[in-house]
Structure formats: structure tokens, C-alpha cells
Amino acid sequence: MTDRLYYHDSFLYNFEARVLESVERQGRTAVVLDRTAFYPTSGGQVHDTGKLVLENEREVAVAEVGEDEEGRIYHFTSTPIAQAQSVRGHVDSARRRDHMQQHSGQHVLSAAFVRLFDAPTVSFHMGVESCTIDLAVKSLSSAQVAQAEQLANEIVTEDRAVNVRFVTLDEARQLDLRKLPPKQTGKLRLIDITDFDLTACGGTHVCSTGQIGAILLRKTENVKQGVRVEFVCGLRAVAVARQDYATLTEAAGLYSAHIRELPQQVQKSIQEAKAAGKAQQKLLEELAELHAGRLLAQAMNSPRIIRSVFSERDAIFIKLLAQKLTTSQPDVIALLASTAGQPALVFAQSPGMKSNMGQLMKQAMAKLGGRGGGTADMAQGGCPTGSADLSKIEEILRNTATGL
Ligand SMILES: [Zn+2]
Q1: Among 27, 202, 325, 333, which lies 20 to 30 A Cα-Cα from 77?
Q2: Using CB atoms within 10 A of its CB, is residue 403 exposed (0-12), middle (13-18) or buried (19+)?
């Protein structure tokens, strides 16, 4: 079995080993070593990457590290390596340090949630950008989140020692462990954050809590098993805070405001946009009333058939106008078109009249290559931009009027 060097020293990045097996696994080449400092994906922590240097100094990249149910560790390599070769392993130390910060931060944070709110962690996920823990609680207030963040960061600043020790399952049962694995063979590996947290874990951790750096809690969301808390630690926390600050600064610049004033500024903008929308709607209503009055005055016959093309008004406006025209008088048929943007047609009649606007619209659209329809009293249609010019639309309206 492979000697897991990271069990005893998480800061060991360079080591020497021998290839026990050279295998193909899941269609990829992999090697099993007699000893390794490479951490395989397990317990929520992501695998290490790095390289193996062969006896002839050739370098082979280790892209992924995994383990099977029997605990055999596979180093997935870019090219095969012969059995019995001696190799020098180099773990990507920046990636490992980041993982140690996230993972050790998770221990501190999980313990903080237990201490403060009796909220145990039921799962942990380490992502490329952020990490999450799922807590077995119904809800979590933002004040509680801030409180847990505060306690976790106090533990960091106290720089408490993080010790690793091995005990039997019986010994572990006598201890007040935060979490005891359900199935365990052999000795248990305990991670002891002095006077704060004791738990069983096979991952890589920092030597003292100060090495975690800042612990920054992000969003929370309700999930099936409780509440999911997103967090980042160490250099990731600095990077995320920097990114957030840049985003806020950019947004505040648009308002010529301080970032702390952003919520009020955005609120104000939303209210202004709403008010402007209402004012515009009122003006459109007034404009439609004016047009309706003008068009009705010009139409003398009965029924009064009104044909009009608007080159600067959109489909919403001509629909509004059609409603004004046909609801104010009992004998009006409105055949309107808009050529602002995508050409659109609206046909409408006063309620109770005998024509069928939906059918007329379908016929008109068949000629224009567009699509539309509606009820007997009101129908609308649209054509693809550029498919119908003004003269064609006018001709359609004229023909439709003649057919009534
Ligand atoms: Zn751990």
C-alpha cells in the first residue's frame, strides 16, 4: 500500500518514490507509487497536481490524483511510466497551499457554527472559485452568518496550533469529536485545533490557524439538507474582496457616488425609471387620444374605416390607438400599421361589428410573409424587418379596406 506522506507533513512538496504499478484506468494512464505526497480527491478536498521526474530527467505531468475503494492512489500522468522506475515527485505547492487554507478554514468555520448555533456541517465542497458547507439547520440569519465569521476569524488571529494524531476507534469514542466517520478500519486520523475543534479527517491542513488567513463568508441559500454557506479563505478571500471592491467602485463611478451610497443610488434610479415609465405611458395615452380624435374627424362614412401607417410609432402605440378608436365609437374599423423597426399591423373593430379581424390579419400576413392573428374584434401581426416596404403595406391596408 502507498505510504501517504501528506498524512504526516502537509508541507512536503518534493519526495522520492518508486513506481509499484503502471496501469490504465478509465482509459487514462496512471501510476501507483510506494509513497506519495500527492493528495487524491476525497473528503471534499480536491486533488493535487504537479509532476514526476524520471531517472532520465524526463518530466511527466500529474494532471489528477484519485483513489479507489481499497485506498490505492492513482496518479494520472500525461504519458505511461514503466514499473519499478524511481521518480521524484513535485507537488504544485501554490495549489496545495490554497487547498489547505480552504480546508482548514472549513474546520474552523464548521466548529464555529456548532459552538454558536449547534449547527453541524453535513457536507463540504471545495470548488475552483469558492467553497461551501451545508449546515443541518432550517434557517440562518445574516447576523448569525456575521457572528460565525467573526468567531472563525478570531480563531485565525489567535494562531492556534493544528495538530495531527492517530487513535483507535475506541479511543476516539472517548473523545468529544465533532464528527466521527461512519465506517472506519484501522486508526483514525484526528485534526486537533487547540481548544477549539477536534475531528477525524484525512485531508491536508495548515500547522496553525494563522496560516489560513482571512475567512470570508459569502452567500447563503436554502438547500434540501439545510442551509448552504459559501465561503473563501486565505488568498482567495483577498482576491474575491479585491474583485468585489473593483466591481463596486466601477458601479459607484457611474453614479459619481461613494460605494457605500450605492444601494440608495440604485434604489433612486429604479424609482426614477419607474416614474419615467409612468410619465411616458401617460403621454402615449394622450397622444393616442389626439390621433384618435383627428382620425375619427376625418372618417365620414359608415362604418368608419380608418387606415393609417405610422413610421415613427411602434406596435404597442398602434395597438393602443386601435383600442381608443374602436372603443369610443360603435362603428369604427381601424387598419393600422407601424413601420418603426419591425413592421407591424393592427386590425380592430368596434365590439359587435360583423367583420373578422383575426381572419383579415391572417390573409394580410400571408401576403406580407409575416405571422399574426387574433380575435374577431382585435388582431395583430408582424413581418420580418425589411420584408415589407411602405408601399406594400399601404396596398395591403387599402385592399383589406376595399374587401370590407
Ligand atoms: Zn480536514
Answers
A1: 202
A2: exposed
The span from the CA of 3 to the CA of 71, in Å, is: 11
- CA-based nearest residue to 193, from 106, 88, 282, 267: 106
Ion ligand 1, residue ranges at CB < 5 A: 201, 203
Which pLDDT does position 162 carry in this prediction? 97
pLDDT at 386 over 90: no
> Would you state the pLDDT for residue 184?
67
Instruction: Evaluate whether 204 touches 99 at the Cβ level (below 8 Å).
Output: yes
User: Do you know the residue count of the chain?
Assistant: 404
CA pair distance 240, 244, nearest whole angstrom:
6
Angle in degrees, 0-180, between the axes of helices 234-255 and 262-298, rounded to the nearest 10: 40
Distance 100 CA to ligand 1 centre (A): 9
Report the C-alpha gap between 350 and 329 in whole angstroms: 7
Range name among 74-88, 173-187, 237-251 with the lowest pLDDT average: 173-187
Note whether 343 and 380 are within 8 A (CB). no
The one-letter amino acid at 331:
D
Separation of CA 118 and ligand 1 centre (Å): 20
Per-residue pLDDT at 183: 66
Q: How far is the CA of 122 from the centre of ligand 1 (A)?
A: 13
Q: Look at the pTM and tell me if it is higher than 0.70.
A: yes
Please tell me the number of Cα atoms within 13 Å of 337 on its side-chain side: 25
> What's the maximum distance between 2 C-alpha atoms anywhere in the chain?
103
Distance from chain centroid for Cα 133: 17
pLDDT digits (tens, 9 = 90+) for 122-145: 999 999 999 999 999 999 999 999
DSSP 228: E
Q: Which three cell numbers stand for residue 353?
A: 361589428
42: DSSP letter: B
CA distance 120 to 51: 38
Q: Torsion angle of alpha carbons 165, 169, 170, 174, nearest 10°?
A: 60
Give distance in angstroms: CA of 4 to centre of ligand 1: 15
